[in-house]
Amino acid sequence: MSKDTIKCKYIFEEDYNPLYVNGAQGGINSLGEIIINFYLERNALPKSQTFSVENGKISKENIDKVEPKDLKNSFVRVFQNGVVMNYQTAKEVHKWLGKHIESLEQIIDEQKDKK
Fold this sequence. Notes:
The chain has one domain. The chain is built from 1 helix and 5 strands, in the order E-E-E-E-E-H. It has one helix spanning 87-114, and strands spanning 23-28, 34-43, 48-54, 57-67, 75-85. A hairpin with a 2-residue loop joins strand 3 and strand 4 (57-67).
């Protein structure tokens, strides 16, 4: 018995560039679709810093002159992309991701056993 087959060709835009994410935020919208907004969480960067110059060389930063003042107690979440998917697609992505997580856990366990 022969099986019918179909080939799927993948098209990548010229500017395709995967991004690193370490978190997500989202939920269910009014249309019943799932929204996932991916972000990169990192320490906040200063808008400016003031340094003193001694003998033509920049010295260590003067913490009192970092803007904004609350920089030490700040972090940012940079949202660069997100996805909206329907229920069925979400289930398929969940299944696909679950399989890859199981494979990764197996690899991690094997590496632990080797140590």
